[in-house]
Amino acid sequence: MTIGLLKLVLFIQNSNSLKEKRMVLHSLKAKLRNNFNVALAQIDDEDKWQKASIAVVGVGKDAKIINSVLSRVVNFIENFNKVNLIDYEIELI
């Protein structure tokens, strides 16, 4: 069994309040859950309007598959027009 952890740092475009930030993150989280069957949580930067740190976790039998899923999550976020990906890190356990 392999556990994959993806840590993301995002810049949220056109966010002028925490409410707008939550709306964008809610939409993004729902799309990632539905498309990739992963678990997500905001792990830092809760009080900043335009920055978010998110952890994405996937579990599976094969490390290659988990790495592939998390890489596709990164690609999806890079193409999501409401956020900019600042940094990410993938860790397999």
Word description of this protein:
It is a single chain. The protein has 93 residues and is of the alpha+beta class. The protein has one domain (2-92): TT1725-like (Alpha-Beta Plaits, 2-Layer Sandwich), CATH 3.30.70. It contains two helices and four strands. It has helices spanning 18-36, 63-79; strands at residues 2-12, 39-44, 51-60, 83-92. A four-stranded antiparallel sheet has the order 2-3-1-4, with helices on one face. Strand 2 and strand 3 (51-60) form a beta hairpin. It is elongated and about 40 Å long.
Major sheet characteristics: 4 strands, antiparallel
Averaged pLDDT, please? 95
Shape: elongated
CATH-scheme architecture:
2-Layer Sandwich
Please specify the SSE layout and strand pairing.
Layout: E1 2-12, H1 18-36, E2 39-44, E3 51-60, H2 63-79, E4 83-92
Antiparallel strand pairs: 1-3, 1-4, 2-3
Provide a quick synopsis of the model.
This protein has 93 residues and is an alpha+beta fold. The chain has helices spanning 18-36, 63-79; strands at 2-12, 39-44, 51-60, 83-92. The chain has a single domain (2-92), classed as TT1725-like (Alpha-Beta Plaits), CATH 3.30.70.1120.
